[in-house]
Design brief:
The protein has 267 residues and is α/β, with parallel strands linked by helices. It contains 9 helices and 10 strands. The protein folds into 2 domains: 193 residues, Rossmann fold (3-Layer(aba) Sandwich); 66 residues. A 5-stranded mixed barrel has the order 5-9-8-6-10.
């Protein structure tokens, strides 16, 4: 598992739980053992993106699990609660991510908005952080999206603003949820071992590529969508028929996205 965490105070529970050791033979503030690697990114979108990219390159682009862990504000959950991000939006971008919820977890699922600056106005049912969107975008370039997840612990709410949070308090709150985090990590790591090349997907991909002209980028997008569809239980022959009824590759990809989108949001 590859962890990207903004601050040492948030990372310390992970370092202690997995007995990670700081290494000088790696970029930045990195801690690792034989199974896990953690990089401290610093605050904000740009630093989260840079750290995730750096860690992905350091790991040679292997399809492994990725987890962004840290504190976040929330408009409805109570301080100290933990949640999985099921929808990640950005305050400066229209790009939306839906981390696939296929792991069994006791953690509730919530929408999460990545903001450019600390938030003081909270919408109901919405979490707020400053790294997740950038993390997810970059981590998805190095691994299957099913293996990329975000877990946040609520540090501030409308009644308890961020000004009252201290680093030690963040460490203590995250420590209380490390068993839940470890359960998720174990499932993701197991999935990473099981996600091997699929002959059915390879065959369907070849057949679809003969229907329309797909650019290199769209060919990669098609392959990823087919993997998602199969993992989410969508019939691949149905996907092939959607492509046949589409006038071109662009609209074919749009139709596939629309078909599998409701399954991504389950959980």
């Amino acid at each position: 598992m590859n962890f990207v965490v903004a601050f040492l105070a948030e990372a310390q529970p992970v370092i202690d739980f997995y007995r990670l050791v700081k290494t000088d033979l790696s970029p930045g503030s990195m801690f690792q053992n034989d199974q896990h690697c953690l990089l401290i990114s610093g605050l904000g979108k740009d630093r989260a993106a840079s750290a995730t990219k750096l860690l992905g390159q350091y790991q040679a682009g292997k399809n492994e699990g990725w987890l962004n862990l840290g504190i976040a504000g929330h408009g409805s959950l109570a301080k100290g609660d933990a949640f999985l991000a099921g929808k990640i939006i950005d305050d400066k971008s229209e790009e939306v991510f839906y981390p696939t919820q296929i792991c069994q977890s006791s953690l509730p699922v919530s929408s999460l908005c990545t903001s450019s600056s600390p938030v003081t106005q909270y919408e109901p049912e919405m979490g707020y952080d400053m790294e997740a969107h950038s993390f997810f975008r970059e981590a998805s370039k190095f691994s299957f999206r099913e293996l990329v997840q975000v877990v946040k612990i609520v540090s501030d709410t409308p009644k308890q603003p961020i000004e009252k949070i201290h680093p030690q308090e963040a460490t203590e709150m995250i420590s209380l949820h490390m068993r839940d985090v470890d359960e998720l990590v174990s499932q993701i790591d197991q999935m990473a071992l099981e996600l091997q090349p699929d002959e059915q997907i390879e065959e369907i991909t070849k057949e679809i590529l003969t229907i329309h002209h797909f650019s290199v980028t769209r060919s990669h997008q098609l392959h990823e969508l087919l993997r998602h569809a199969k993992m989410l239980g969508v019939d691949l022959d149905e996907i092939k028929n959607l492509v046949s009824l589409s006038p071109d590759a662009k609209q074919a990809l749009e139709k596939i996205n629309i078909r599998i989108e409701p399954h991504r949001k389950l959980g």
